[in-house]
Write a structure and sequence with these properties.
The protein is of the alpha/beta class and 408 residues long. The protein contains twelve helices and 15 strands. Helix 2 runs antiparallel to helix 9 and helix 3 packs parallel to helix 9. The termini are far apart. It binds D-malate (MLT).
Length: 408
């Protein structure tokens, strides 16, 4: 008799974004002809840049000829891409990450979810609240939690509330976790962590022999030069942190798929006898067993973003989205909302008006302004009473959505 992974039955709800999609589709079906503006899921709208497209085409052309055709590539990614990342994403910013510590994958969502597999099932996980829902959901799926409680927290997870009072940067937890998920620039609040704050976390992890799972998917949106883009800008971080990065939002790869995860050779976890084991070795074992690499044309396209022309083009797109964020922030503030984020991150986090519940405000906005956002409570209990707008829409829609909200 086939039985199920019972831990899946503990999940309190469906995954957040399909649930939003379902409600929006229902609305569209019932109201044909109404233009709905989507600022919910952080999905990009600007196309791949010319340099990226050219490299993509070249990759496809190479696949079409017998003498340049490629079958299986290295599971960890082609050297040309790993070298380009090591040089342009790290070394050029003063951080020495060898190409060999970089693992190319098809998404940070997958990597942040899958990483738990190489750690013991008794590891205690600390998660910010609110946060990208993948961390909590995959912790539940992997059997590290009990049931969900009345307060919306799963038993066994160490939740770290992020509120306006603590500027959406959690306090160090009293109970010491083994794995700590941090995401900065933050999804969903748009907050950033300063050098001092990251230093505090790195020191904490070193003292507690914990590992920080640092999701830096939005690092490219940092405008303030004093904010670290990588946790490895902090001394000692290589011994305690894994960093996840993605080209999804950075270069419009949400549909193309390419991300990378850095696991420094120095990073150790411990076996039952307290012997250190290289985490990178375990991830390499997993990756080579369960993954056959990202397709060659996609890796070729990805490498193009690190060329001088590619960098310029990608920066223009990031500037475009950040201009959206600034238009939204200004307009929502003028409309009377309390607004956070949007300065070094593509997300705007607002307090719902008159103490409305997040989903209540979602319905109101959808029905009355035909604008879609993401209810803050979908990111965790401390997100209740908040709402997230994504700045990835096109400019015309951003302006129209802001006008509609103003006229509500
Ligand atoms: C979000 O809207 O939070 C993200 O787009 C989801 C993701 O990156 O998977």
């Amino acid at each position: 008799m086939a039985t199920i992974n019972e831990h899946y039955m503990k999940l309190a709800a469906g995954y957040l974004f399909p649930e939003i999609g379902r409600r929006v589709n229902e609305f569209v079906k019932a109201n044909p002809g109404i233009k709905v503006i989507r600022m919910g899921i952080g999905d990009v709208t600007q196309p791949l840049t010319p340099t990226v497209v050219k490299a993509f085409h070249e990759g496809v052309d190479e696949m079409s000829k017998a003498d340049t055709f490629k079958g299986y590539g290295p599971e960890q990614g082609y050297d040309f891409l790993r070298e380009a990342i090591a040089e342009h994403a790290y070394r050029s910013r003063g951080v020495d990450i060898p190409a060999d510590d970089i693992f190319i994958s098809d998404g940070s969502k997958c990597d942040t979810g899958n990483i738990q597999e190489i750690f013991g099932s008794d590891n205690k996980i600390a998660i910010c609240d609110p946060v990208y829902p993948v961390y909590a959901d995959t912790t539940v799926m992997s059997g590290k939690t009990g049931k969900i409680q009345a307060n919306g927290y799963y038993e066994g997870i160490i939740y770290m509330p992020c509120t306006a009072e603590n500027h959406f940067i959690p306090a160090l937890p009293a109970e010491s976790p083994d794995l700590i998920f941090l995401c900065y620039p933050n999804n969903p609040t748009g907050a950033v962590a300063t050098r001092e704050e990251l230093k505090k976390w790195v020191e904490y992890a070193r003292e507690n022999r914990s590992i920080i799972l640092f999701d830096a998917a939005y690092e490219a949106f940092i405008r303030d030069e004093s904010i670290p883009r990588s946790i490895y800008e902090i001394d000692g971080a290589k011994e305690v942190a894994i960093e996840f990065r993605s080209l999804s939002k950075t270069a419009g790869f949400t549909g193309t798929r390419l991300a990378y995860t850095v696991i420094p050779a120095e990073l150790m976890a411990f076996d039952a006898e307290d012997n250190p084991v290289q985490v990178k070795k375990l991830w390499n074992r997993r990756h080579t067993t369960k993954f056959n690499g990202v397709s060659y044309p996609v890796q070729k396209a990805a490498a193009a973003i690190f060329t001088p022309e590619g960098k310029k083009e990608v920066q223009q797109i990031i500037d475009y989205y950040m201009e959206n964020a600034s238009i939204m922030k200004k307009s929502l503030s003028e409309t009377g909302f309390t607004v956070y984020g949007g300065e070094n991150a593509p997300y705007i986090w607002v307090k719902t008006p008159n103490g409305m519940k997040s989903w209540e405000f979602f319905d109101k906005l959808l029905n009355e302004a035909n604008v879609v956002g993401t209810p803050g409570s979908g990111f965790g209990p401390s997100g209740e009473g908040y709402f997230r707008f994504s700045a990835f829409a096109n400019r015309e829609n951003v302006i129209e959505a802001m006008e509609r909200i103003r006229n509500l």
